[in-house]
Each structure stands twice: as structure tokens, then as C-alpha cells.
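INPUT
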Amino acid sequence: MSYKKDFPIFKNNRKMVYLDSAATSQKPQVVIDAVNDFFSKYNSNVHRGIYTLSEKAEELYEGTRKKVAGLINAGGASEIIFTGNATEAINLAAFGYFKKFLKKDDIVVLSEMEHHSNVVPWLMLKKSLGIKIYYLPVNEDYRLDHLRLMEQKINFSKVKLISLTHASNVLGTVNPLEEIIPSLKKECTNAKILIDAAQSIPHIPVNVKKMNCDFLAFSSHKMFGPSGVGVLYARQELLEMTDPLFYGGHMIANVDKEKARFLPAPAKFEAGTGKLEGVAGLGAAIDYLNTRDIKVIQKYEHGLTKYTLSRLPKIKNVQLYGSRNFLNRLPVFSFNIGAIHPHDVSEILNRHGVCVRAGHHCAQVLMDACQTAGTVRASLSIYNTKDDVDKLITSIEDVKNVFRLTD
Ligand SMILES: Cc1ncc(COP(=O)(O)O)c(C=O)c1O
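OUTPUT
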């Protein structure tokens, strides 16, 4: 199966080996066409346009909402809120819902492998409300040790939120949420569940019903769609209790000089004109994922992961931060080479056309747990091949030569 041909960037950059998909994915031609088509065929504002062109634009916009609901098995399109990205989606849950209901000494459970966007909003609420945060630790195999929560001497009824990433943007670990959530919920009966699916959604099935979650967040740009669009899913009754972050046009049922009444979700949360062309592109990205079949994608990527794990950690002086078991894992590989600074590694890999990311990956809690300031991260997607992995490996050998790191 060759996915690469679907992505025109590779025709225009024939020697490039793109290994930075955890930061943002490349876009298939069908997504580029959908954005282009929006501007060249349907461009007009949605909502309240009583003419054919605007109705068509609205059809695309609301059609994508239905596609998102289908993709994650939500109860309906009204449970899908378009935001700017996953970060904004988590902020909407944090400041629109949890800020209203959390009280001093309530406990929020996170994990050590969260991206900053699922740490910092809760730190802000800790500061303003006096809540407590407990971080589930990462074990020696770079997986969550969720049962450690049960050993804590805490009042479990005070745990009001468990907010976890589905997959780590650094370790590649996929958290077995279908096992973790029910196990934690046995004790933490008052806890709502928020899942950060930013990394998992282009790689593995995401099903809000199976996860039994209350909120779920992700970004379009990591799942082959355009940037500038994110999604917050929340159960309908929770959305009714959630306040918007932004106020203004489109969200309104009625306004007079003294007061405003809002429309129900999703409109209540989407003040102003949305990212219309981006949403059209997200719709095409979902169609692409559906035609390619996420289960087939998952199998292909398992092969890539297995192959990379058979080579990368075997290189002398390479320290891999991530499980060596290819199951329950994404093709995301964080590593260091001896004491060489990750930025230097990245710079030399770039000379070979290999694009990786270097630094703390917005996961400094995890960096502390791994006792490192940063790593090099090679993150693969469907358009990568074993040849790309080979190129990474030979380029790493060159990094070692440049720094005279002898075996
Ligand atoms: C696990 C995870 N959550 C959230 C985000 C934030 O996504 P965005 O920057 O699109 O808001 C990222 C981005 O890398 C991520 O990897």
C-alpha cells in the first residue's frame, strides 16, 4: 500500500524524509482540493445566508460536523464544537465547564505524559481555585501506572476530573483507556473524563462511547486536515452547563440593550465567523481517513513501528524514550544520541533531508520524569516507508561521525 502518492508535497520535495507528523501532518491532494474548491466554488459566509451559494457553504460546514460526529461515534452533530485547535478545545472545557464546578481541594488527575495544553489550563485553575493536581506516573516501559493513584491517601470522592492523553506525543505510548478509565472510575465515582486525542486520531480508532469519556479534544492539522481548526466533543447535557469562551455574533438567540440569550450548542460556542475553508478541508480529511480505513492504517503503521524498533534502539549510544514493544504504540520515537544536543542532531539530520523535531515537545513534566531537558523526535505517518527509516538510521550514523562518537 503506497499512501505517499496521495500527498503532493513529496512530489515537490523528492529527497525529503518527513518525520515530524506529530507536530503536523502533511495534506493529501483531496484536502488541498477541498480548501481550493471552497474558495473557488462555494466561498460565502455560512448561517443566515438565504441564497444558494451560502446554503452550499453551510452544507459543507455542517456536513463536516456530522462527519466528525460519525468519526468519533458521538451522540450527534450538536455535540461537536469547532474550535481553533486542540489547545482551545481543552481550554473551553477547562474555563467554560470546570471553572464553574471545581472547588478548593477538588482533585484533577493528569498524567506525567501530558502535553502542556493538558497541563497549563489546570495549573491556572489550581492557582485561581485552589484545586489539587495528581500526576499518574510513567513506568520503566514508558506506560502509565494508573493503579498508583489507588495507593494515594486521598479522598477519592474529591477527584472531579481525570484528564488524559490517548497517546503520548513524545513516547508514542497509546494508553489503554478502555481499561484505565473503568478501573479509576471504580474509586473516583465523581470524576468526569477528558481525553486528549490530538495524537491518536490519525492513527487508531477513537470512539467516545467505548472510552466512556465526557469530553474529547483534537486538532484537524494533525489528522491530514488544514490548520486553524480543532474539535471539542462533549456530552450534550454537559454542553448545556458549559459557558462560552467568546461572545458576539452567530451565537445569539436574542439581544436587547440589557441582556443576551444564546442559541444552544454548538452555536453557543462558535461566536463570529468560523474557519470555513478549514472545516471544509477537515471534512475531506475525514473522508480520506474513512476510505483508507483506520484499521488498515493501524496495521501498516504497526509494521513501520516494528521495523524502526528493530533498528533504532540497536544503534550504540542511542537512548530511546519509549516502549520497545511495538503493540499499543504509535510510530513516534524520541531519543538522544550520547550527550549530543538534540538541536545539533536535528541540524545534521536536516543536511540529509531528514526533518525531525528537537526540544521538550511541550511536555516538560515528562522531560523531568525522563530526567532529560529534551530529545530528538522522529514521528512517522502513513506516507512514511521503511526506506525513510533506513535514511534516518544512516543519517544518525553521520551525526555520530560528525561528533566523533565512536562505537
Ligand atoms: C498530545 C497533544 N495534545 C495537544 C496538542 C496541542 O495541539 P494544537 O497545537 O493543535 O492545539 C498537541 C500538539 O502537539 C499534542 O501532541
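end of record. Residues 294-402 form a domain with the Aspartate Aminotransferase, domain 1 fold (CATH 3.90.1150.10).
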